[in-house]
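User: My advisor, Dr. K., asked me to get a structural model of this assembly before our group meeting. I'm new to this, so sorry if the format is off. These are the inputs:
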Amino acid sequence: MENRITIRKWFWVWSFEKEEDWLNEMAMNGWVLDSVSYCTYHFVRCEPGEYSVRLEMHPYDEAYLSFMRETGAEYVGRMMMWIYFRKKTADGPFDLFSDIDSRIRHLEKIGRVLAGIGGANLAIGMANTFSPARLGWINLLAATLLMYALGRIHGKKEALEKERALHE
Amino acid sequence: MAESFALTEATYYILLSLVSPRHGYGIMQLTEELSGGRVHLAAGTLYGALNALSAKGWIIQLPAEDDSRRKEYRLTEKGLQALKSEVARLRELADNGDRILLEE
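Assistant: The format is fine. Below is the predicted structure of the whole assembly, which you can bring to the meeting.
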């Protein structure tokens, strides 16, 4: 019986919750995330439901990783700006965010990254539109997509802010 | 106190936990214990709050005795004042609630 599988899969940035749900479904089916690389997920066998998996946009930060380890979470790996953790379900519930404020701050962090990359693509695209190579449209297309992603993330943030108006 | 706005439950329990020095996991455990399991602090939320409270000068990180030790935090005088004024504010809320509901 195979003990490792690799799955290539693409998730849009605004579907990070779906990505997390999928990783937890895999764990429920006896495959826990073991490492990640660009759009590629490596799984190893586990007892069904043995692990919870969480992901978060966070710059690489050794202090944060050791803090997470203290709480019983295991660092699985990172892909671009995203870091992946897993924790044995027997060691208690595993969430990264337990209040609306920190969920909003997480979405703001994603928004800043998207705005930064989107802005850079817009600038490069505009500059290249007038260059002989005429490849500026690639950056302009990327910028458009990133701005759309920013809008989706912003929508999620606004929904949480409405909720926060009534309670924490 | 200049700052009269409400603390979040997470912030409140973090400050309360740090009246004596504690590391991150200790804060999570004490918060669950004090609230009878009602308030759960997730690690990412706690980490963000600890950084924000340190930046505000309400808590400090204690120097580690050796490299392997987990980082401990403790309330500062400023943090203690903020906590005390929050307790007074919560008491006012609860007292008013009791008074008006008991009149019914």
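One thing worth pointing out at the meeting: Chain A has a mean pLDDT of 92.

User: Perfect, thanks a lot.
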